[in-house]
Structure formats: C-alpha cells, structure tokens
C-alpha cells in the first residue's frame, strides 16, 4: 500500500472498544475526508448491546493494567469536559469502597446461588485499600462515611475506601459508548449492522471484511479494507483463521429505581454480605454483589460470573431470571432503599477474558493477562486487535481507542507504552 492509497478502515464490533476507537480515529490529525471508517456491529439492535451497554461503569485509578489506566483516566476527564459528559453520559466522581457486613431476613427466602456461587468479577485484584479513617466517619459502624446512608449502619462490619477523592468516577456505559459512536459519525464514520464472517487477506495483508447484514441473514457482502481492527469483545476468537487466546464469562446485572424520596449518595460498593440462614442456603453463605449508585435515582447491581457457553451473537444471550432475583435479594438484604425500589432491568452479558500461561526461555511458567492491544502481524499486516479487557473495559476504553488510532494512523503508539499488551506477547 502506498502512502497515497486512501485508507479504508473497518472496525469489527460496536462495543466500547470499537466505538471509542472510531471516535479517536475521526479526531486524529491524519484523518482526511478521503479516509473511510466503518463500524460493523452484529446486533440487530445497534451498538453497545453487550458488556459495553450492561456494565457498571466504574472508572478508577486503581484499575489494571497500569499501562492503560493513567492515559484512560486522563482521557475520560478530557472527554467529559469537551462533550459535557455529565449530561450526556452520566459522568461524575464517586466514592468507592469495600463494604463488609451481614444481610438481614427480608421476608423472602434468600438463597446464595446461582448468583452467589460463581466467581466475583475480580475488580479488586491488586487494589490497596485506603485506611477507613480517611472517611472521618462519626458513625459507630466502622468506617462508614456519614453520607453513605443507603446501607444499614447496624448491618455494617467495616467499610474501607478504595481511593482518595477524585481518583474514582463513573459513566453510564451504554450512553458513553453510543455517544462515542454518534460523535464519530458526525465526522463521517459509517455504521453497518452486520456480522463479520471472515477477514479477507492477500499476500500477507488484510484486503477486506465479509459480513452478513444483521437485517438480512442470507446475503453476504465484502467491504474492502486496508486496515481491520478487531474489537469483538467476547466474540473476538470466533473468526476463521484468527486464533486469539480469549474466553468469555457471563454475568448478570439489574437496575433498581429506589422510591423518589430516597437519598442515594454517589458511591460504588464492593460488598461481602454474609446471608442470614434460609431453607436452601446454609448459615454463613457469603455473596459479593457490586452496587453502583447512578445519577437520576438509579442503582445498578451485578453478580458473579458463570460458565454459560458463548452464544452465536450478542442478541442470543440468555438472561437467567433466578440469577437476577438473587442479586435483588442480596442487595435488598442490606438496604431499605433498595428493598423498597422497583427492579427495572434484568440483563446478562459476556465479559471478554484473555489469560495465557507462558514460559520464557530458562524461566518459570507465568500467567499473563490481557487486554491484547496491537497489530497482529502473525495473521496479517493491517490486522489490529483490541480485546480482552475483562472487568475494566469501560475504564480503559479511551486509552485503548487513542492507542489504536495512533497505531493505525501513525504506525506507532505514543500515548503510553503498551509493549506488554502487544499480540506477540500472547500468541
Ligand atoms: C457485569 C459487568 C460489570 C462490569 N463493570 C465494569 C465497570 O464498572 N468498569 C469497567 O471498566 N468495566 C466493567 N466491565 C467490563 C466491560 O463491560 C468490558 O470490558 C467492555 O465492555 C468490553 O468491551 P468490548 O467492546 O471489548 O466488548 P463488547 O461490549 O462485548 O462489544 C463487542 C461487540 O462486538 C460485536 N461483535 C462480536 N462479533 C462480531 C462480528 N463477527 N461482527 C460484528 N460485530 C461483532 C458484539 O455484538 C458486541 O457488540 C463490566 C463487565 C460486566 C460483565
């Protein structure tokens, strides 16, 4: 490809990685009127139908991997200032901490599972909690901040803040993702509802993407492509010939609308709740739902992951009502406001996970975690991958999008050193 060849960039996946990457490409200094960028999304219902529309939305300097968090946090602040993120996607700083205590009997028989039996989403991996004294609580309940009134003091054993004020924020993931896409479209990015079935390659470089239109599942078309960016989340390993060491974990979540008079202060809680005994769960069962207060009197709560197999597309994800009921019962057992609230959404999605066990010459086998970010030349020149962001993709999307835009448009990443996340480290 010569320098004068017009760029024809196809992004596979309209989740937060695909839409944010499209946004940053459309703002890149080398983006020309002749640069064609297409976001291809398999869902019949538009962008952000997977994890990117159904996540909690926590943005934290305590996230991982470090390489991406610094640039991503800075970019989140910048994006919110530039595009009025407060009104547009619910951007705000929040308190965040680990809450430990006891759930109380709420009239229903509270069970531990299935929501109580899977693996927690592990957001707290590697997090150093700040001493609870920093919250200056006057409450007898250990460490509970004075304005965190929507969990019961008498059920609280301890609260430890995760970060200092200003180091933790939130967005509404669906609104953030769709806003990124809309802002990219304003600069000429195209959106197509269609499922990629293969990446076309010739002489060791990408030449196109073949897809089936989401609205017409019989007819195949090929879009020519000088560059292909694979951002298919949990589905990133499903295209023929592109073997990525990624897997998928399903997780359920609900949203609750507390009564209008309830005061829900801005906190995100990582709970450890010891349930009261019930006919189906033994005394002392511990569950760990995450609870996110959101602007507009909404509370989001999610449960652990399970091992349901990945379905064909995001539109085929099955929601297990029992898992949603469990999350509701668990959070209601520590909060009157959530107990009195109305459950509005019951949903499930698949988290993209990349874990590889690798042996360096003469060294022990070590486990390395994604995300994978970079050009996958082992498959083809012009094929880029941004996937495997596990439970921190909302936080790390702006850093990923900016890095991908630099790599595709300039040939190198300047905003951060992402060498450790390069595809060559994983494959
Ligand atoms: C319960 C839960 C809570 C979470 N909370 C947080 C949080 O608080 N903070 C945080 O930072 N992260 C959080 N996350 C993680 C975050 O949601 C993910 O890391 C992120 O959404 C992944 O984005 P993605 O774009 O890679 O994948 P996805 O959102 O899955 O998007 C991939 C898209 O690609 C499309 N696609 C797949 N295959 C094809 C194909 N062949 N052709 C075309 N399109 C295709 C899919 O339909 C999908 O829309 C949470 C995740 C879960 C499950």
TrEMBL record:
Residue stretches in coiled coil: none
InterPro entries: FAD-dep_OxRdtase (IPR006076), FAD/NAD-bd_sf (IPR036188)
Cited Gene3D superfamilies: FAD/NAD(P)-binding domain
Residue stretches making up the FAD dependent oxidoreductase domain: 9-407
Domain of life: Eukaryota
GO cellular component terms, semicolon-separated: cytosol; late endosome
GO biological process: retrograde transport, endosome to Golgi
Pfam families in UniProt: DAO
Name under which the protein is recorded: FAD dependent oxidoreductase domain-containing protein
């Amino acid at each position: 490809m010569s320098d004068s060849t017009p760029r024809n960039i196809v992004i596979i996946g309209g989740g937060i990685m695909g839409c944010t990457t499209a946004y940053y490409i459309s703002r890149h200094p080398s983006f020309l009127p002749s640069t064609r960028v297409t976001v291809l999304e398999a869902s019949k219902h538009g962008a952000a139908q997977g994890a990117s529309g159904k996540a909690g939305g926590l943005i934290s300097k305590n996230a991982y991997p470090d390489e991406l968090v610094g640039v991503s946090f800075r970019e989140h602040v910048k994006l919110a200032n530039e595009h009025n993120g407060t009104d547009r996607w619910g951007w705000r700083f929040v308190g965040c901490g680990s809450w430990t205590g006891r759930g109380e009997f709420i009239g229903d028989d509270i069970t531990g599972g299935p929501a109580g039996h899977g693996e927690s989403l592990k957001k707290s991996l590697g997090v150093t909690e700040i001493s609870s004294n920093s919250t200056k609580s006057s409450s007898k309940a250990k460490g509970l901040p004075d304005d965190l009134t929507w969990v019961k003091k008498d059920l609280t054993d301890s609260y430890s803040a995760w970060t200092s004020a200003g180091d933790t924020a939130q967005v509404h993931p669906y609104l953030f993702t769709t806003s990124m896409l809309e802002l990219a479209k304003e600069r000429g990015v195209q959106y197509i509802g269609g499922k990629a079935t293969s990446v076309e390659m010739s002489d060791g470089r990408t030449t196109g993407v073949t897809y089936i239109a989401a609205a017409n599942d019989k007819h195949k078309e090929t879009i020519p492509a000088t560059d292909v960016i694979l951002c298919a989340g949990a589905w990133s390993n499903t295209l023929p010939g592109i073997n990525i060491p990624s897997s998928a974990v399903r997780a359920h979540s609900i949203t609750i609308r507390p009564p209008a008079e309830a005061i829900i202060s801005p906190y995100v809680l990582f709970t450890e709740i010891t349930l009261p005994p019930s006919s189906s769960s033994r005394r002392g069962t511990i569950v760990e739902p995450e609870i996110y207060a959101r602007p507009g009197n909404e509370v989001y709560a999610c449960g652990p992951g399970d091992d349901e197999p990945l379905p064909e597309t995001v539109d085929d994800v099955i929601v297990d009502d029992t898992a949603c009921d469990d999350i509701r019962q668990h959070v209601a057992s520590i909060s009157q406001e959530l107990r009195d609230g109305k459950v509005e959404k019951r949903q499930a999605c698949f988290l993209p996970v990349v874990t590889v066990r690798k042996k360096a010459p003469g060294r022990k086998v070590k486990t390395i975690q994604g995300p994978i970010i970079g050009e996958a030349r082992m498959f083809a020149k012009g094929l880029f991958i941004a996937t495997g962001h596990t439970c921190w993709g909302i936080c790390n999307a702006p850093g990923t999008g900016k890095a991908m835009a630099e790599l595709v448009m300039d040939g190198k990443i300047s905003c951060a050193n992402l060498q450790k996340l390069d595809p060559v480290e994983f494959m």
